Amino acid sequence: QTLGLATTTLSLHAPSQIAAAIKSKAGELQFNVMISMVEQPGAAAASAAVQSLLAQRVDGLIVNIPLETAEVEAVQTACGSVPVLFLDVSPDVSANHIVTDSASGADIAVAHLVTLGHRHIALLAGPENSVSARLRLEGWQRSLAQHQLAPVAFMRGDWSSLSGYQQVSQLLRDEQKPTAILVANDQMALGALRAIHEAGFAVPQDVSVIGFDDTADSACFLPPLTTIRQDFRQLGEASVNGILALIQHEDTFTALQPVSLVERKTTA
Ligand code: IPT
Q1: Mind listing the pLDDT tens digit for each residue in 14-45?
Q2: CA-CA 20 to 30 A from 90: which of 48, 135, 254, 256?
Q3: How many angstroms does the Cα of residue 75 sit away from the middle of ligand 1?
Q4: Atom number in ligand 1 closest to CA 187
Q5: Which residues lie with the beta carbon below 6 Å from any ligand 1 atom?
Q6: What is the 200 CA–ligand 1 centroid distance (Å)?
Q7: Distance 94 CA to ligand 1 centre (A)
Q8: For ligand 1, atom 2, which residue shows the shortest CA distance?
Q9: pLDDT computed for residue 42 by the predictor
Q10: Each residue of 198-249: pLDDT tens digit?
């Protein structure tokens, strides 16, 4: 039997590590995985990727592409009787999904910085067209408000380390330096570390940085990155187990993927 994985670009660390985890779990269970990758954001490219997998008669589909709720319904309809499990959608969708607990991730990150005494916190969010980027941002804002804080600066990157570098370089040129930056993923945090270093500041003495993901490389950043961990191996396993349950006629499958704080050397 064959599973289909429709995924956002594998040039990003998180989706590639998720795909690797899905592939290896499926392999253990003697399932093939066919991968179709989209390079453009948006529903049209996502539908094309899904169609190409359906044309190859996959038994079930995992979709790791950011999709708005209306787009989820369209993909679901296109799949007909082939079960489909979504990984990057709002936790409110009725379709089958496993999504990261962004709200807890944001709470844990904000609480960590607040406990260290930070009051001047900047936000580096992910792209506007990404559901998970928006959920992380909303979580930070809600959580900061609960601590009677408002962000001192706001930036948006495209998940890449280069965008993190550019946004934080700009921030440190233009504005008052925050004491800490909440970053929506580890790749942008990598770029942020370089920008802070080049501006002549030290991490964490002058500026603390906290990421989101805990990709495999994050422990080797300089300094090693403090981050909110999504366990990609576990997410891959849960996705394969979920889609197999659906193929074996389970009606629905929804789960919230837990996150945890990994405290390394970029926060103080
Ligand atoms: C999400 C990652 O956290 C982020 O770093 C980026 O790679 C994004 O994917 C790409 O879409 S993880 C996803 C399961 C929400």
Answers
A1: 999 999 999 999 999 999 999 999 988 888 89
A2: 48
A3: 20
A4: 5
A5: 8, 12, 14-15, 64, 66, 87-88, 100, 130, 132, 159, 185, 212-213
A6: 30
A7: 21
A8: 14
A9: 82
A10: 999 999 999 999 999 999 999 999 999 999 999 999 999 999 999 999 999 8
Tell whether ipTM is more than 0.95: yes
Pocket perturbation via mutation, ligand 1, pick of 63, 67, 102, 132 by most ligand atoms within 8 A of CB: 132
Summarize the confidence of residues 151-158 as an average pLDDT: 97
Closest residue by Cα to atom 12, ligand 1, is: 14
pLDDT digit string, tens, across residues 192-212 = 999 999 999 999 999 999 999
Q: Please state, in angstroms and rounded to a whole number, the distance separating the CA atoms of residues 58 and 60.
A: 6
Residue nearest to atom 10 of ligand 1 (CA): 15
**C-alpha span between 197 and 163 (Å, rounded):** 16
DSSP annotation string for the chain: -EEEEEES-TTSHHHHHHHHHHHHHHHHTT-EEEEEE--S-SHHHHHHHHHHHHHTT-SEEEEES---HHHHHHHHHHHTTS-EEESSS-TT-SS-EEEE-HHHHHHHHHHHHHHTT---EEEEE--TT-HHHHHHHHHHHHHHHHTT---SEEEE--SSHHHHHHHHHHHHHHSPPPSEEEESSHHHHHHHHHHHHHTT--TTTT-EEEEEE--TTGGGSSSPPEEEEE-HHHHHHHHHHHHHHHHTT-S--EEEE-EEEE--SS--
Atom of ligand 1 nearest to the CA of 188: 5
pLDDT for 226 equals 98
